[in-house]
């Protein structure tokens, strides 16, 4: 069996005296959809930020395709193929929808910076190829008809989908989604789940998902990693996690104590 | 440009109808012809001097706009202008360096200084960046004032030579005008091409959403430094050109007030487009002169005009022209 796409090896992150993450290890194989779940304050977002390079770990190793990515700039990690979305700030609201995706494709547009200033034939060809690729992405996410709209004018669900389109434009091997359905109604959330599943298949990407929405997570993920108080308390397929005593205890701790 | 509208490229700008491409082109030719001919029709040296200041201020405002396009406002822009001026003036006075080379040297030195300062300022955003650029400007002025053996302190530098091109000294206002016009066109064309390129895309991404820009693979600190260095380098080179025109330089030549003036030009003209800086400079440079008749009230009227612009056209003068040009574009939006 081939090595994992992403290996998170005993990472810790301290904020002053607080251990936000402690010795957390997990891995993601190519083609998997993995969910990272846990109660509020469990360290999910910290874990996400550390893996995507926004924060550095206090200890531990992170390898992507067997190469260490600890200490690399977030922009460099993106170029390796590990791309994330954000909970709130998912789009460029003032730019047009197509421009949003073109910005997402920045690192994967094969154009020299000088060439793009001089607007050479090669640069124009590269940019129009990228534009076509971005339009295809918009089409796949049912946003093509809004391509010249200001992104801030899209509906909330539309903005969420645009956030995914921006991330996909960077050609991720691993797409990390930070609470992608927060604030969506149940119908939109279910649609979003189907969309992720479809993209996972057509784009051939692996997915790491942080999410509160249990139905979505259980239906979508091949495997779950559960954090509580910065520590991994369980890992397994959704059915195992659902039956896991310590997971139930973490979520419903008060009841257990009573 | 017109030649680029082949079948495949047409896709890229579906919202631009041929008529709307032609109109700005004609306008550009008319403005350029006027800029070339008009100064010949007046013998009033003051008007030509004013035109020179308008062109130089346009360059200062546009270069500040380049820095602002990554979402940062520099309160020390005049210090870079002054630094460029001192570099070229001192090189000319001490080492007989031809001013035209001095201008290039000034651009390189100030651009490099901005790279070094930028590395320090890198992690500062918003108000902290603004404060440090303000302090850097003040520190620069203090250095110039106190390093008397080199800068002659508050007495300033006298006898700075004029620019000379192929032996022709640009010692009259009219001759300098054509030099300034050429410099203006070069700078505006460069900044326009830059902002249209992938650099512009990166700059705007960073200004609008720095975290998302970073997670789109855009190296934020790199592009912030590029914008800061290019904007400061252009300002330094233009400051050098100006000092060979005014031919006197003291610590009072470019002060914090000038930094504020460049920002005002940018905001009044429209800070989101390059043309905004130009419009702001063209509008605000002659304004105090036009108000000279209203003795005593001129500052009040100047202030009222500024307030009115900010209140009623918050996106700047450029937005008037834009709403005029883009009429009908809503209906042309495909699908």
Low-confidence stretches of chain A: none
Per DSSP, the total helix count of chain B is 17
Helix content of chain A: 40-55%
- Identify the overall geometry of chain B: globular
Number of helices of chain A: 11
Cross-sheet strand order for the largest sheet of chain B: 1-2
Point out poorly predicted stretches of chain B: 1-15, 327-335
Spatial order of the strands in the main sheet of chain A?
6-7-8-3-9-10
CATH superfamily membership of the largest domain in chain A: P-loop containing nucleotide triphosphate hydrolases
Class per helix and strand makeup of chain B: mainly alpha
Give the topology string of chain B: H per helix, E per strand: HHHHHHHEEHHHHHHHHHH
How much of the sequence lies in strands of chain B comes to under 5%
Mean pLDDT of chain A: 88
Tertiary shape of chain A: globular
| Largest β-sheet summary of chain A | 6 strands, mixed
Radius of gyration of chain A: 19 Å
Compute the number of strand runs of chain B: 2
Q: What is the CATH first-level class name of the largest domain in chain A?
A: Alpha Beta
What is the CA-based Rg of chain B, rounded? 21 Å
């Amino acid at each position: 069996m081939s090595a994992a796409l992403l290996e998170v090896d005993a990472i810790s992150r301290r904020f002053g005296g607080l251990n936000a993450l402690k010795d957390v290890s997990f891995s993601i194989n190519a083609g998997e959809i993995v969910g990272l779940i846990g109660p509020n304050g469990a360290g999910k977002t910290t874990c996400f930020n550390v893996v995507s390079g926004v924060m550095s770990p206090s200890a531990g190793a992170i390898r992507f395709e067997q190469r260490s990515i600890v200490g690399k700039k977030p922009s460099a990690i993106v170029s390796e193929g590990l791309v994330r979305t954000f909970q709130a700030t998912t789009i460029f609201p003032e730019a047009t929808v197509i421009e949003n995706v073109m910005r997402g494709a920045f690192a994967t547009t094969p154009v020299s910076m000088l060439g793009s200033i001089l607007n050479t034939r090669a640069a124009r060809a590269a940019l129009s190829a990228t534009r076509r690729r971005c339009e295809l992405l918009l089409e796949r996410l049912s946003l093509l008809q809004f391509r010249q709209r200001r992104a801030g004018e899209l509906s909330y669900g539309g903005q969420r989908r645009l956030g995914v389109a921006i991330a996909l434009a960077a050609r991720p091997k691993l797409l990390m989604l930070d609470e992608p359905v927060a604030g969506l109604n149940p119908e939109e959330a279910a649609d979003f789940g189907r969309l992720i599943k479809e993209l996972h298949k057509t784009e051939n990407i692996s997915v790491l998902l942080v999410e509160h929405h249990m139905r979505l997570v259980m239906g979508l993920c091949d495997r779950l990693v559960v954090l509580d108080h910065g520590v991994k308390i369980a890992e397994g397929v959704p059915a195992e996690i659902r039956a896991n005593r310590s997971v139930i205890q973490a979520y419903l701790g008060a009841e257990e104590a009573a | 440009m017109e030649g680029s509208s082949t079948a495949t490229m047409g896709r890229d700008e579906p919202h631009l109808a041929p008529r709307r491409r032609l109109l700005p082109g004609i306008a550009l030719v008319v403005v350029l012809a006027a800029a070339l001919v008009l100064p010949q029709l007046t013998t009033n040296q003051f008007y030509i001097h004013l035109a020179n200041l308008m062109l130089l201020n346009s360059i200062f405002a546009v270069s500040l706009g380049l820095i602002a396009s990554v979402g940062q406002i520099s309160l020390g822009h005049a210090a870079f202008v002054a630094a460029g001026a001192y570099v070229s003036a001192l090189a000319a006075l001490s080492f007989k360096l031809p001013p035209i080379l001095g201008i290039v040297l000034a651009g390189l030195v100030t651009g490099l200084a901005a790279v070094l300062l930028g590395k320090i300022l890198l992690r500062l955003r918003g108000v902290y960046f603004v404060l440090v650029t303000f302090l850097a400007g003040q520190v620069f002025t203090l250095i110039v004032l106190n390093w008397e053996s080199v800068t002659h302190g508050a007495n300033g530098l006298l006898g700075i030579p004029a620019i000379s091109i192929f032996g022709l000294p640009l010692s009259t206002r009219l001759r300098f005008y054509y030099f300034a016009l050429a410099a203006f066109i070069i700078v505006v064309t460069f900044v326009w091409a830059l902002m249209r390129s992938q650099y512009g895309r990166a700059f705007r991404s960073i200004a609008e959403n720095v975290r998302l820009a970073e997670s789109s693979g855009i190296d934020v600190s790199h592009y912030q430094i590029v914008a800061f260095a290019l904007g400061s380098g252009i300002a330094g080179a233009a400051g050098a050109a100006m000092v060979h025109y005014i031919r006197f330089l003291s610590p009072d030549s470019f002060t914090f007030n000038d930094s504020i003036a460049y920002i005002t030009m940018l905001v009044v003209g429209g800070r989101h487009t390059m043309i905004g800086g130009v419009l702001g400079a063209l509008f605000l440079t002659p304004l105090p002169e036009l108000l000279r008749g209203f003795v005593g009230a001129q500052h009040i009227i100047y202030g009222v005009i500024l307030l009115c612009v900010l209140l009623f056209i918050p996106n700047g003068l450029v937005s008037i022209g834009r709403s005029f040009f883009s009429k009908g574009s809503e209906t042309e939006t495909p699908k």
